[in-house]
Amino acid sequence: MRYLLFLTSMNNIFTNLLPKPSAQPRAKRRRQGVELKSAPEIAIMRQASQIVATVLKEISGLVQPGMTTADLDAYAEKRIREMGATPSFKGYHGFPASICACINEEVVHGIPNPKKVIRKGDVLKVDTGAYYEGFHGDSCLTIAVGEVSPAAKKLIRVAEETLFKGIEQVKAGAFLLDVAGAIQDHAEANGFKVVEDFTGHGVGRNLHEEPSVFNFRTHELPNVKLKAGMTLAIEPILNAGSKHTRTLADRWTVVTVDRSLSAQFEHTVLVTEAGYEILTDRSTVAG
Fold this sequence. Notes:
It is a single chain. By secondary structure, this protein is of the alpha+beta class. The chain has a single domain (35-284), classed as Creatine Amidinohydrolase, CATH 3.90.230.10. It is 24% helix and 24% strand. The protein is built from 4 helices and 16 strands. The strands form 4 sheets. Strands 1, 8, 9, 10, 15 and 16 form a 6-stranded antiparallel beta sheet that branches. Strands 2, 3, 5 and 6 form a 4-stranded antiparallel beta sheet that branches. A 3-stranded antiparallel beta sheet has the order 4-13-12, with no helix packed on it. The chain is globular and about 45 Å long. Mean pLDDT is 91; it is low at 5-30.
C-alpha cells in the first residue's frame, strides 16, 4: 500500500485527506526516522513477508473471469489469518478490506466489491499486507486475466521489469535516487509514465515508515543513503498514458485521468551490505 504525496508539499508522507486511523494494536507507537532492523526482527519480517508472498501466489493461480474482487478479498483475509497473521490493510486509516484490488485504469487503493466482476482481458492489481508478531510485510502484483491485449501485456511486463531494475540498485551505500533513476529510465525507455503522486516507503513495525521510496528523479524528497538493515517497500506504478491521477468519490480508489491502463508491482526488500534480499519473493513459496 502506497504513500500519497501532497501536490503542494511532497515532503509530507501521510495524507490528511483520509480518515484518522482507528486504534490498532499493531501500530501502538510511531517511531521517527529510518529504522535499521536487527537480525531477530529481520527473521520475523521474513515470516510476515512470506505470508504475503504465499497469499499473492495463491491468488494469481485462482483468479478467473467471473470472480469478484470481494471474492479475492475474502480469500486473502482467510489465508492471512490461517497462517497466524492479521491483515495489515484492514482498518488502516479506515480502509475496509484486506487487499487493494484495482482493474484496468484503477491505479491504487481500489476497494473490493461484490459487484466488481473480473473479466477476461482485465489488468488486475492485487496489493496486500500481513502483520505477524509485530512486523508487516507488503507486496503487490499485476495479473493478466486470461488473454490480454498486446499493449496490456507489454505494460505488465515492463512494470515488473522496472521493479527489478530498481531493486538491483539496492545495497548499503547506494542512494534512493539510484533506485528511482533506474525505475524511471526503464519505464520511459519503453514508452510508459511513472506515477509521481505515490511512492513506496519503509516498512516494519508500522505499515508505512520512513523513508519515502520514490520512483522518479526528484530533489523534493530526501535522497536517503541506504544502510544494511533497512526494510523498504519498493513499488513502481506505470501508466500507459498520462502520469496524472484522480481520486474517485469513495475517497480511496485512484484512477488514471485519461482512463489509460495502469500496472504496479511491489516487494518488501531488505538492504544488505552486499546488496539486497527480496523478503516477499513468491518464487520461494512452495507449490
